[in-house]
Amino acid sequence: MPINTANLNVHGPACYCIHARGTLDARWSRWLHELELVVESDADGSVVTLRGTLRDQAELMGVLNHLSQMGLPLISVELVSENT
Fold first, then answer.
1. Which residue from 5, 22, 58, 78 puts its CA 20 to 30 A from 43's CA?
2. Dist. CA 49–CA 47, nearest whole Å
3. 3-class DSSP state of 57
């Protein structure tokens, strides 16, 4: 089902699901804005999934920058829902 993005803007909160190649443990959740953190293994190695609400797209960019600085290649970023 498509998400209605009519009210989405860079300054408002939204829920995201981020996938990156690699692994993190639960203590990193605090550094990543308290996002839910799940690590799963597949045939190519480990994939970390971060899911939760971020207050704006600047906070999303901060999370993506943290992942990049930790050397975790980004697989996908998905808007799960906008929060109004």
1. 78
2. 6
3. helix
Give the tokens for residue 22.
């690699």
84 three-class SS: coil
- State whether the Cα torsion 14-2-72-9 is positive or negative: negative
Q: Which pLDDT tens digit goes with each residue over 12-64?
A: 999 999 999 999 887 888 888 889 999 999 888 999 999 999 999 999 999 99
52 in Cβ contact with 34 (< 8 Å): yes
Quick check: is 64 in a domain?
yes
Residue 34 lies in a domain: yes
Q: CA 63, CA 84: separation in Å to the nearest integer?
A: 21
Q: Is residue 2 part of a domain?
A: no
Q: Quote the tokens at residue 84.
A: 């109004």
Tokens 């498509």 belong to which residue?
Answer: 2
